[in-house]
What we know:
There is one protein chain. The protein is mainly β. The protein contains two helices and seven strands. A seven-stranded antiparallel beta sheet has the order 1-2-3-4-7-6-5, covered by helices on one side. Strand 2 (38-45) and strand 3 form a beta hairpin. The longest helix is centred in the N-terminal third of the chain and has 8 residues, at 19-26. The two termini are 13 Å apart.
Amino acid sequence: MEKGIIKGTPLRLDNDTKMSDVERIWGKPNEHFDNEDIQTYRYTIKNQNFIIDEDEMNEIYTIQVELDYSKDEILERMGKPTQPGNIFIYEKENYIIQFEKFHNKWRLILRKR
């Protein structure tokens, strides 16, 4: 994640990955939301939800993944957050890695600075 890559997926922010690249590997998304300038796509792969936001320049700029980790597991793996609070934020190189509680799960949000 520190390099903008979600391992084991076609999702990456470190290069010019486009939705067509993701679709070539995962097929069409389960859902598509047209928010005018922003396009949001949702995939469910092996019972895990992935949400991808694409801007008007067709660049993927945010990736969200629902996780089955506990708060303690996140803190153990990631260490102390850059910013304190109930949302854990880690600033790494050119990316911001954020964990926030979403319903009864944690959501990882990876975005460019």
